[in-house]
Amino acid sequence: MTHEIAVIPGDGIGQEVTPAAVDVLEAIAVDFEFVEGEAGDAVKAETGEALPRETREIAADADATLFGAAGETAADVILPLRQVVDSFANVRPAVSYPGLDAVQPDTDLVFIRENTEGVYKGIESEISDGVTTCTRVITEDASEKIADFGFDYARNNDYDDVTIAHKANVMRETDGLFLDTAEAVAEERSVPRTDERASGDTASEGIAYDTALMDALAMHLVMHPEDYGVVICPNLAGDMLSDLAAGLVGGLGLLPSANVGEDNALFEPVHGSAPDIAGEGVANPAAMILSAAMLLDHLGYEDEGDRVRTAVEATLEDGPKTPDLGGSASTEAVTEAVVDRL
Length: 342
Ligand code: ATP
Prior knowledge:
Elements: E1 3-10, H1 14-28, E2 32-36, H2 41-47, H3 53-61, E3 64-69, H4 74-84, E4 87-95, E5 108-114, E6 118-128, E7 131-137, H5 140-156, E8 161-166, H6 174-189, E9 191-192, E10 208-213, H7 214-223, E11 230-233, H8 235-249, E12 256-261, E13 265-269, H9 286-298, H10 302-318, H11 331-341
Helix pairs in contact: 1-9, 1-11, 5-6, 7-8, 9-10, 10-11
This protein binds adenosine-5'-triphosphate (ATP).
Residues 13, 17, 74, 252-253, 271-277, 283-284, 287, 324 line the site of adenosine-5'-triphosphate.
């Protein structure tokens, strides 16, 4: 069966790492048909629109989308694209790999980030000169859906530890609802964690869960990432905590992500367009290639996804490596090494 894959490289290093992921998917020899769409700063400069209707349609009609990065126009591109694929969950694994000089070499975390609301709903206004507001939207439906997804993810991916991140002591209404709703799901689907976080023990059976204030969680993640598995977060917290975790495992060049909807999904690296290195051909393609591996999993090709992850892991360990990981190899050389290993 042929799967149609929308490919939207976007801006900056998106133009460099997206072809790398396509090369890898072609090497895997699954029957994919790639349909390319334009989006981002360059197409806005040309046409006045950062996300042309044709590109939206390509993503809507495809079985899955690979997206690179957008620059200045990111909010006009990726937020609507996530809506096009109706994605409610943003899955962001942060894993440390052997052979890399990671700040925390025992990290194996997955952030499950609510992807539709919070402050990213985009309801902002200037109510008078020098005074602005942002409306934070949290609903019971979306909170329940993301918590359920998080527990499904933990079960299907052998994580026995779920943490619900919140700031309900300050945002009493919005995060109060997020926390109460997620905890109700957690109580049905796991055993509450009663041990001390510092002890590193988990409950003896099933998935253990606890809740954590997101600011304290940031500190604990830096010091003891090994204590955590799946972390369910409201939208902005998930964005920030996953970038923090990128720093623990070796940088943004390593973190893939999936935006998952009921019937469609979009896969993109956590990093942005990296204007500081764009055009130099030295962007680390690992995050984008690992995003392609998540795409393979999503379409039911888990063995192929595992093969890609194994090839990327071996390349990260033995090289060649891009400059962000202390090497001097180009994006193309690293991609070729991954393809050769496949
Ligand atoms: P955005 O606002 O779109 O996220 P940004 O420039 O603020 O863009 P990133 O594009 O994610 O953020 O880049 C942050 C830093 O990480 C930059 O120094 C960039 O060079 C580095 N970086 C990001 N992705 C990669 C990559 N794939 N390979 C090497 N370095 C990267």
